[in-house]
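Data deposition worksheet. Section B asks for the primary sequence of the deposited chain exactly as it was used as input, without tags or linkers unless they were present during the calculation. Section C holds the resulting structure in token form. Section D is free text for depositor observations; keep each observation to a single sentence. Incomplete worksheets are returned to the depositor.
Section A, Depositor: J.P.
Section B:
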Amino acid sequence: MKSGQASRELLAPISAAPSVTEGLREALRRLVAVTGSTAGVVALLPQDHAPIVVARGSSAPLPLRRWLTDVTASPVRGTRLTRVVPPGSSRSRPAALLRAPLDAGGRRVGELALLGRVGKLTAAALPASFPRELGAAIDRRCDLERLARRAEVVNGLMTLLASPHTLEEVFAAFADGVARLVRFDAISVALLDAERGAFESFDLAAGPLPGSPAPGTWTPLEGTLLERVVATGAPVRIDDLEHDDTPEASRRVFADRGYRALTLVPLSSGTVFGAVALATTRPGALRDADLEVVAEITRPLALGIERWRLADESRRRARETHALLEAGRAVTASLDVGRTIRVLLEEARGVLGVDSCGLLTIDPGTDELVMAASLDVPAALVSTIRLRLGEGITGLAVQQRRPMQSPDLWADARVMYPHLARGSGFRSMLVAPLIRGEHAIGAISVLRHDVHEFSAHEEELLVALASQAAIALEHARLYTELEGMVADRTRELDAQKRFVEVVLETMPIGVLVLDGHLNVVRINRAGARALACASDAHGPLAQFLPHDTGAPVLEFLGAAFNSRRGGSVEGEMIIAGDAKIFRFTVAPVVVSSDRGAYAVVLVEDITSAKGLERQMLLTERLTTAGRLAAGVAHELNNPLATIAGCAESLQGQLGSVDQRALAEHADFRHYLGLIEEEAYRCKEITGSLLQFVRDPGSRREPTDLNAVVLKAVELLAHQSRFAASRVTTDLDPALPPLAVNEGQLRQVCLGLASNALEAMEGRGMLTIRSRRAHGSIEIELEDEGPGISEENLARIFHPF
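Section C:
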């Protein structure tokens, strides 16, 4: 291959192609074709790209690709031509392998290897200057790509910072960007807390690396590489941890995890507040160029962290404000001191980031501090913790009425219960006294599992929570004093209430309490029985009353509510199948509150009273009718007796009359007999009527029931309104006499039979039967009428 124009044509794709890989592949393909090689490979240093392998005419087989890749793994000094046996070839037919290092400005950037036929591929195939020209072209293109990637990474970080983001998102974007520009094995960020004099580390790998400190672990700054970075404000690079001067604390952390080289780049926003650490297992693998790249990308990272810190500080302040507000709300919203204290302890634990909280109060009887509540100490152990004033850190804080702390309880001689601290794992403690006026009444304490010196801000926050706790305890004391008075008054009211309820429930009259919408609020047992509902019934009164007959009652009650006037109304209605007459008496009650108006309604069942009233009216009418009937019957008996006597006298005189003259009037004797017979018949009817209307009295004597039935039938047979009806009897002749009041039983039979004939409107057949059944005697009346309606079935025993 000739130099000059040919070399430029071979190298042209490297700068023109979209990427280094595509450009090298095309340049290598041309080089293989020009030199007559069968295959070629280019490997770059550092190994930012996989080795590029091409074959003449087609893609190289996988075994050949792996073989060529392995060949470039070991560096070569100068251009060298050797005979080799590649995969797929026999020893009798070896191939020629031409290798040449690729340099740029005296620095190796890669290696070139060509494979061809022995004799055809020679060292002269490559001009002496070509490897340097190829290396320079590759170096220039790689520099351009690195610059482009660096600008892309920086722009990506700046774009991310321009939008809402979390610290984890910033760390992830930063780690991804550094990985695109620098080769490393581990990357982490250390953030400094100047007040603590310690730093917290964040591994930016996909997961925590072996030996990494747990999240939230603070490492002392003194004696670390970060201390050197903070002091100088400049990056620190360690090429080999085993030989370079490295503080023992940092060397141990990285060396124990298998790293040999590392670099720390400061994070600064005017002052250094942390550093980015890159570590690798290869000594000397991190170069000054890598430091420059990481330093450039670290600037937007520092900006993002500073923004996050400001936002975190704002959130922390908001959490503290919220904690104080919640504590104040708990104190004012509840009289349950136990619940209030627990809310205060939980808020203290959350806002201070501690592991446990507890509260102690002074026992008035012993003047000792007694643990009243704790988030972690078992309940059985809480009451056993007692301190005298001045004992332990808590006792001192209460005695001196000021906050006190212990950064390390295990090494503090003031601790009263060191075995408890070691057994629970607590290492540091902060105590604030509860102050009421000029006196301390207890203390609130917070504990952590690590050695920690609480800041002045943390002390101020705990003192504020202690003030809220003191207010809660004072409220509890006042509440306890008032509780006795309230309990006494409550017992009196309960006794009065029970008395009223007993009176209400034992009243024989129904009592309902209605609201303004006529809903039942309360009902006593008598009211529930009257309306056939449950004693705890609630809801609209309308659902307990019939729709038709209950409407006037509801209208009356509504008018009473509107007019605020009492009154009463009577109504007849069917309740549970029984006809009832109720008197509703209402008295509206105006309650002196926003609960609206109510009404007390008395419900009286006056069915029996109304029945007695009607019975008295009926009795009076029947008595009058009986007297009238007795007078009429008595007056009729006299003319009937005269008629019968005259007829009998005329019949006697017929014996002395000439028989021949009598023969001319043959019907005369017959007619006189009929007159006499019918006169006596009428007299029997009036006699029966007189016997019916007489007071039957209450005496019972043996009576023939069949005779009573026949007598009632005989009386009905003389009534013309029943002339179209037929009355038949089916009487048991073997019935024995029964001790009854004959008059009362006759009235019953006559009334039932009369009602049956009236129901058939004077037509149809009425059958009366008597028989023995189940040790008793029954009299049954069966008619052909329509029967009794359901509405009147409940009223069959009413007089009208």
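Section D:
The two ends are 141 Å apart (CA to CA).
The mean pLDDT is 82.
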